Amino acid sequence: MPSQGEDSAVDPPDDAEEDLLTSSPLKRIIPSVSGHNRQEVAGSVYHHFAYEVDNATMWELLKLSDEKSKLEKVFGKPPSFVNRVSKMSMPLPTKYCIYLNEISQMVRKRIRKLKVPYIKFVDTPYRPPKDHPTGTMNEPDLIALKFQEEDHEIPEDVFWSAVETTGEIKSAGDTVVGAFTKARSYVGYLLQARPDRTTALGIYTEEKGFKLILHNCFGSFGTKLLVWGNQPNILLLCAWVWCLYHPITMTVDPTITRTVVWPTKGAATYDPPTFDVKTPGEVFPGCSVLTAGAHFGRRTIVLNTQTPGTVIKEQYVDPGRRYEEGQILHKIHREGDFPGVVRVGWYGPVKDIIVKNNKSVKVEATPEHSMHEDVSEKVKMRLILKDTAFPLLDAETPLDVLIAIYDLLEVTRFLYAKYQILHRDISDGNVCLRKELVNDDDSFNKTLGDMCLASHMLQQQFGLSGVGRLATKLLLIDFDVSEDQGQKAGKRRPKPRTGAPLFMAGLLRTKQRKTGTYILPGMPELHGDAATAYKKCVLSRLDEFPQVKEELVKNTEKKMLDEHRHKLRYDAESAFWLLLYWVVLACPAEKKIDDYPIPETFWRNLTDSKDGEDYRSSCLERLANKAIVSDYDSLECLIKLMADHLVGDYDASQDQYRKHDAFLHEAFQRIILNFLFENYSAPFMTLKKGLINRKVEKKEAMRPPLSRASVDANRNSRSRSRSQSMSSTGTRRTQSELGAPLEMDIDTNIRGRARATGKHARDKEGDDLHDGNYKPSISTGHTLAIMLTKSTLCSQKRRRCGG
């Protein structure tokens, strides 16, 4: 059931004042980064969301400005920092951890309540927190934990979701900026593991002083360096610790209760914390964080529940946004289940169940940041989703992926044809597969006309029967930036640039049309069994999209014809880049992954996301040069045939059929269908890829994302202070026992120990985009037109590839 309430957004009436609505904004491009890699996230993202604030502003951010005078009296004269002679090579605890615990003890004594827990600061350079939802293996120098007993033993392994705050100690080899950015990023990682918090706190320390950090969806707010001997500075530090004991209303979600059960003395293992999530009329007990999105912006978190097939999605959104995910999903399924699209139960803003006026849980921006963000607050939204699946990148075989991409094209074109809904964020994190085929049943939408998915067309080839027209493993999720073009247009129109830059249509990346003289390919011809199946299942499309020939086009106009509207063909192009991404990352299971690195130049051109530039077209020329593992080389001609259709601008065509919204969908689907029918029994089509994605030749390039298996292996690993390949009995374990090996890049830490820098699922937030730093060596004029001439194939090869 949809949410009902005063803060629940509703579809605007046709005569509504459109200037009261907030459209999806045109944002700068954020680089594609391996978000579980702290170095990449901190280096590419944080400097755009890092704000320096004075002491007065930090008091305001902590919501303690009105209590300042009172708290100063409560704290009295706090203990002074003793600059003890201490080096990281000496035994722990560090002098900073000792002093923070002194402050914590003093603050606790000032709290006039019974059963006040104990907050203890712990040095953790050799046993970092584990079980982060992104699979990161980051190592904050210190953390704070909350115990009910003063003398509770610190467990050997600590879960991220049990941490109260994080800290970083500047080392001799660190720069101040580098160490402080590191400290900021750890707080962001902490917030990803704490869905019960809207805001998290952190600290940076060095010989001269300390900096306090407050992190939320708007940014990372840090003080200037506060010297240890200054009384006002220490009082602010006491207030910061006070907030660890007394999380203010604005920093917590009162509808989520965390349960931490610490291990008993001598226990070898214990379970990670869980979260009880309350929604109107229902409580979901024992939830755990399944995935986490970016550190800023929408800050999407998905929680796994104990109800089979049900997950909870939460994120922070502009309360005045025009398109709301729950409403769009409700519209998609209101006439019956729409195949391949995630279903929604309850949805709506999260209410503050403690405050009597029942307002939404929200995060407010500081005055200066609200000007930068163009929004003064964000509301926490929650959706109960009734389907689960695994990411498409974890699909095992080319056959699985090609069927899924065909179905993805079919689903997105019918969402638009039936409901005028565009997804606008086709990417690796939003296209998933179920383990089993979901066949037609009475719950399916009966008004979808000739919609037909690949498994139905191919059932005879696979020796199956009874596979319905709408049967699919596909599950399309994350409609939070989707657009309902069925709503009446007004003064504020949705902008097109939304989603992950790596998968974004080229025209949106460059913000201009493709100029010059080029050839637009004709509609691909169907062959043999593919043609027979197509005529049997979707005969009308052969008339709707006749066999148009090549067209020579000359375009001199760079300006986009309608820069304020996303087009259906943009989602089709995103599907192409997603297919290419899977093919590039795939390495057969029996191969040693280190022997098949991805060429660095190719990878940089594919993943670089400098605003206004698009170098992905140039990388297609190198597909035959180790960009694809040789076992999957047969997919190269399929990729090139599809890429031919991305050469030019369909708006420059004089052909009425090419200007049809679904022309590119139709062309791609025919190419894929030819390939499926001609190669379905070929050995490479069912050759399973390994659990781990390929790596890049040089580590300076953006790391590929972790596979789900690698994330799970990292989450379940023990502290790296022990051998990762040893069992609890001390015997060495085999790789088959361990599953996917831990993925990390080892560098030498300035403290003389090996440091593992992990990698987590790529940040992909359409809300917060910015420029990249890398400038590829390919000129901006190097477009797909070059690739067109190089990918000319003989007629026999085209037929074999489905052309």
UniProtKB/TrEMBL annotation:
Biased segments, Basic and acidic residues type: 760-773
Coiled-coil spans are none
Q: Where is this region: Disordered?
A: 698-779
**The Fungal-type protein kinase domain, residue ranges:** 141-582
> Which Pfam families does the record associate with it?
Pkinase_fungal
In terms of domain of life, where is this protein from?
A: Eukaryota
Which ranges are annotated Low complexity under compositional bias?
Answer: 707-733
Please report the name of this protein according to its UniProt entry: Fungal-type protein kinase domain-containing protein
| Organism, scientific name | Serendipita vermifera MAFF 305830
